[in-house]
């Protein structure tokens, strides 16, 4: 007696494609991967480095490096240290140290309107120096997010790459038969095409979850940039909100922070913001709500024993929570350094996939051309695979090169103060 057949799902029918269908999917995978390899590798590389951008700045800037001590300075002491060291500057915010060997960061504005980072030893409340707002982190983040183009055009352009990334993930699953067996398939030695093909597939299956996550969060950025952004976060300040009679001192600021901790003991304060006159402000940070940016949890600095206005991530709507989740998931910023290390490793794998895919195209075409020449009696060394891949990109290559060059020219102009695209 025959057992009843179970109808196949669209996904299973897609993955179990016929050889002719699989050939078509492979052609699509190769075409998209080759034509977009240059821009996608660049965006993936800058995103990967952006994950550890603060650590890279720490290596480059001595002012960011401190020696840990047993006790940390208070928020009031750090604010006072910054204002005392740079008396003519306006303090906008202070951000907690990124790690135990990192300085806390104060964002201040000079009388000329320039924004600078002032670094404060979070243990001793001593200013260790100041640096330009245009740091390596800023270059990586702005380049990765919108290629230093005006955000109105740059963000949709970059985030639209999520669509071909999804295409590459889907077509890769179709062409790689029984891909779930590839997690332990170590690259075979021998011919370059065989070894690099195995390496490409090994990286692809292990980074499948990461590629999908990056594609989906990138797709969300695209939706937001085209008008589908979430409603604004609830405001916690109004024009008639109470203000202190005089700017905060270290003592009054610490007293206000202490009242915040009494009102909201679960809040881990990460950022302190002061109004321009220094007579009011707010703190932001993390609570038990997962995968949100610090700004999702905010409370005004209490000026008395009365409850201060607050905003909690737990009270946000689904659309707002989804919007707040995108950045932590995209950059791995929701956890300590081991999480960022995982994001960095898989980001490097995704960057490598972009390059090895183009290289495999070059190997395949160069090998086929060499075989045809040998068959016709015109033996000779095969062409360099990288050169073949570069030629195969056709006009796309010059478009991407021009775009990337323009991006860095805009960065130089913005950094030198010749143009102002974002201020």
TrEMBL record:
<feature type="transmembrane region" description="Helical">
    <location>
        <begin position="157"/>
        <end position="180"/>
    </location>
</feature>
<keyword id="KW-0472">Membrane</keyword>
<keyword id="KW-1133">Transmembrane helix</keyword>
<dbReference type="InterPro" id="IPR005625">
    <property type="entry name" value="PepSY-ass_TM"/>
</dbReference>
<keyword id="KW-0812">Transmembrane</keyword>
<feature type="transmembrane region" description="Helical">
    <location>
        <begin position="341"/>
        <end position="363"/>
    </location>
</feature>
<feature type="transmembrane region" description="Helical">
    <location>
        <begin position="201"/>
        <end position="223"/>
    </location>
</feature>
<dbReference type="Pfam" id="PF03929">
    <property type="entry name" value="PepSY_TM"/>
</dbReference>
<feature type="transmembrane region" description="Helical">
    <location>
        <begin position="398"/>
        <end position="419"/>
    </location>
</feature>
<protein>
    <submittedName>
        <fullName>PepSY domain-containing protein</fullName>
    </submittedName>
</protein>
<feature type="transmembrane region" description="Helical">
    <location>
        <begin position="32"/>
        <end position="53"/>
    </location>
</feature>
């Amino acid at each position: 007696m025959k057992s009843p057949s179970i109808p196949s799902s669209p996904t299973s029918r897609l993955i179990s494609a016929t050889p002719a269908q699989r050939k078509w999917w492979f052609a699509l995978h190769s075409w998209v991967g080759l034509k977009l390899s240059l821009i996608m590798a660049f965006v993936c590389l800058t995103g990967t480095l952006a994950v550890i951008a603060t650590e890279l700045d720490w290596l480059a800037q001595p002012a960011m490096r401190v020696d840990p001590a047993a006790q940390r300075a208070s928020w009031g002491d750090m604010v006072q240290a910054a204002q005392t060291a740079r008396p003519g500057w306006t303090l906008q915010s202070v951000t907690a140290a990124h790690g135990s060997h990192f300085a806390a960061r104060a964002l201040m504005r000079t009388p000329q309107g320039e924004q600078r980072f002032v670094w404060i030893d979070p243990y001793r409340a001593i200013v260790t120096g100041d640096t330009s707002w245009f740091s390596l982190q800023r270059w990586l983040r702005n380049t990765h997010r919108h290629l230093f183009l005006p955000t109105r055009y740059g963000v949709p352009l970059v985030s639209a790459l999520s669509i071909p990334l999804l295409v590459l993930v889907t077509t890769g699953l179709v062409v790689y038969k029984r891909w779930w067996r590839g997690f332990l398939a170590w690259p075979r030695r021998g011919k370059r095409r065989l070894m690099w093909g195995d390496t490409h597939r090994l990286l692809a299956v292990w980074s499948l979850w990461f590629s999908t996550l990056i594609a989906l969060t990138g797709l969300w950025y695209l939706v937001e940039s085209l008008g589908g952004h979430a409603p604004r976060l609830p405001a916690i300040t109004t024009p008639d909100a109470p203000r202190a009679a005089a700017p905060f001192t270290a003592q009054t600021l610490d007293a206000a922070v202490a009242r915040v901790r009494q009102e909201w003991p679960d809040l881990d304060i990460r950022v302190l913001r002061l109004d321009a006159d220094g007579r009011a402000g707010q703190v932001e940070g993390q609570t038990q709500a997962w995968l949100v940016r610090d700004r999702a949890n905010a409370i005004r600095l209490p000026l008395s024993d009365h409850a201060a206005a607050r905003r909690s991530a737990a009270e946000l709507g689904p659309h707002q929570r989804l919007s707040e989740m995108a950045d932590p998931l995209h950059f791995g910023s929701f956890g300590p350094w081991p999480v960022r290390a995982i994001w960095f490793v898989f980001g490097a794998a995704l960057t490598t996939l972009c390059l090895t895919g183009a290289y495999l195209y070059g190997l395949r075409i160069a090998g086929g051309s060499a075989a045809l020449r040998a068959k016709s009696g015109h033996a000779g060394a095969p062409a360099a695979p990288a050169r073949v891949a570069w030629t195969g990109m056709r006009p796309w290559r010059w478009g991407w090169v021009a775009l990337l060059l323009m991006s860095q020219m805009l960065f130089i102009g913005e950094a030198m103060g010749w143009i102002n695209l974002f201020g």
